[in-house]
Design goal:
Layout (H helix, E strand, L loop, with lengths): L3 E6 L7 H10 L3 E6 L12 H6 L12 E4 L2 E4 L1 H12 L10 H26 L2 H6 L4 H8 L1 H7 L12 H16 L8 H12 L1 H7 L23
Length: 231
């Protein structure tokens, strides 16, 4: 069985992190096709290798990250996550799940995705953040997490006893939010315990301690406020 190939920016956490968590926990074999952005957005050469290749790889909608699985090619991070989750049995609902179960899965994914994109907007200096969070993004994080903590309640994972691909998106979101506001989880012991459960999974624990795990930068060179440079 050929290894999966994942294409993404070299040394960037970005959209790839939840995909890599899933790959590691599921034990799926993969190799990386990495593209440099040395010099950042101010360097006109930083995207050249990707732009030279992007329309030659057989993708219908060329983009990063991408997935190659034998003859099958896929882009868009959410689509890649769901595809890999189906392969690994980590979708969170059964193949014959009702329309209602499928809709609840999609609802919680969309909600967690929204929380994640807020820190992207914060990093790139979007005016959306000033509109949504007049108290400032870092100070707003605890109130953003009220709904997630209420959804989780005393469950082990977002959809019950078994981990799903959405948990990897939420884990990444919470981990980044802790970097921005270290006290953001103080009111939510169930979220603290949730993070510990995920980090204690043997494969996850091993990966987080390995040099393959990219901790920084979180965002690409377009980030102005936070996420690419720490100063």
């Amino acid at each position: 069985m050929p290894k999966l190939i994942i294409g993404y920016w070299k040394g960037l956490r970005g959209l790839f992190a939840p995909i890599q968590y899933l790959l590691e926990v599921a034990g799926l074999e993969y190799e990386l096709a990495l593209y440099d952005f040395e010099g950042g957005a101010q360097n006109p050469e930083f995207k050249n290798r990707w732009f030279e290749e992007k329309n030659t790889l057989g993708f219908e909608l060329p983009n990063l990250p991408y997935l190659i699985d034998g003859d099958f090619r896929l882009t868009q991070s959410s689509a890649i996550l769901r595809y890999l989750a189906r392969k690994a049995g980590l979708l969170g609902v059964a193949d014959n799940a009702s329309a209602e179960e499928q809709a609840r899965l999609e609802m919680i994914q969309n909600h967690v995705d929204e929380l994640r994109w807020y820190y992207v907007h914060y990093g790139i200096g979007s005016k959306l953040i000033d509109f949504k969070f007049p108290e400032g993004y870092p100070a707003s994080i605890p109130r953003q997490l009220e709904t997630v903590a209420a959804w989780l309640k005393d469950k082990f994972f977002l959809l019950g006893d078994n981990i799903s691909y959405v948990d990897f998106i939420l884990y990444e979101t919470l981990d980044v939010q802790k970097m921005i506001n270290p006290e953001c989880l103080a009111k939510y012991p169930n979220l603290v315990a949730y993070i510990d459960r995920i980090e204690s999974l043997p494969a996850m624990k091993k990966f987080l301690a390995s040099p393959e795990r990219v901790a920084w930068p979180v965002l690409g060179p377009i980030a102005l406020t936070w996420g690419f440079k720490k100063e």
